[in-house]
Amino acid sequence: MYNYFLNTEKRSIFHKFIFHGRYFVSLYHNLNKTIMKKNKIIYYVATGLLTLLMLFSASMYVFNHEAIVQAFKSFGYPTYVIYPLATAKILGLIALWFVNNKTIKEWAYAGFFFNFLLAFFAHVMIGDGEQMGALLAFIFLSVSYVFGKKIGKH
Description:
Elements: H1 2-6, H2 8-63, H3 65-75, H4 82-98, H5 102-126, H6 132-151
Helix pairs in contact: 2-4, 2-6, 4-5, 5-6
C-alpha cells in the first residue's frame, strides 16, 4: 500500500485531481465575485443616472417654474402638483440611496414607475416628441431595480 503512494504516476494523477478540484472551486468563486462586481457597477451607474435625471427634473420644477406651469397646462394637469411632485422626487431619491427599509424602497420605485409611465404617455398624447426623457428614466429605473435585486440592495 505504501508503494502505491510512492508511485509517481499514480500520485501525480491523484494530486492533479485534487489540484483541479480546488482550481475549479476557486475559479467558481472568482467568477462569482466578478459577476457581483459587474452587477454592482451596473446598479450604481443606472441609479446614478436616474438620480441625475430626477435632480434635473426637480430643479426645473423649482427654478424654471413658469415653463413647467405652461407644460402642465398643455398636458391638462393641475399646476398645484408641481411643487409636491418635485418634493416627492427628492424624497424618492433619498429613499433609494439612504433608507434600508425594503418596503419604502419598493414604494419609491413604484412612485417613479408611475411618474415615468404617465409622463411618457402624456408626451405621446400631446405629440410634442419629448417622451425620450421619460423613456430613458424608465430604462434607468428598470435596470436599477433589477440589478438592485441581484446584489441584494432591496
